[in-house]
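Reply to dn_fold:

You asked what the input looked like. This is it:
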Amino acid sequence: MESLEEIARRVVSCTRCQRLRSYCLRVAEEKKAAHRVETYWGRPVPGFGDPRARLLVVGLAPAAHGANRTGRVFTGDGSGDFLMRAMHGAGFANIPTSRSPGDGLELYDAYIAATVRCAPPDNKPARDEIGACREYLEAEFRALAGVRVIVALGRVAFEQSRLLIASSGARFAEPPLFAHLAVAFAHTGLALLASYHPSRQNTNTGKLTAAMLAEVFLEARRILDTP
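and this is what came back:
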């Protein structure tokens, strides 16, 4: 079985999806005005967190000027801070912000990964790009042997998490349906917990509030704390 470090090295060196690689490199070269003096990461982004995690958080993809800039998933943009406030409130993070790899953030009993490891144009990866990245999520899941809860951020992450669980041999009595705060348990006891994605589109419109996301991670905590 690969270690998380070995998986991370494979992720960072991946060149499978030319459209995504070209886009990430172009964004890293052109930059955003607010970050024009920074050196962008511009490569695929591996997962991040506690190798003994019982909670796996699955997002969609790096943001063009977030993780594609900083090199750490959900780091350097409003979505990362929004997510980290909720995780911090439930005891999964030591600080409520996620600004840069050197900010002192540590995850407790949690690991964050993405469905796609390169920033996609318009935040919309193609189906074949999602499929090309699936093996990395599967490898991380195998390496994280203690996972009991998967929080899927958004419909795409939910569907990929459902497939991930199925690939492990776990079965659901009925197919899980995506709805915010919906939870489904596999016969092994593994829980799949759904949430709207903390994108600006959702948080700025009120589709996802801070209280709603906090409730998701408090529910994950409750499941983990139940014998």
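The chain has one domain: 4-225.
Hope that clears it up.
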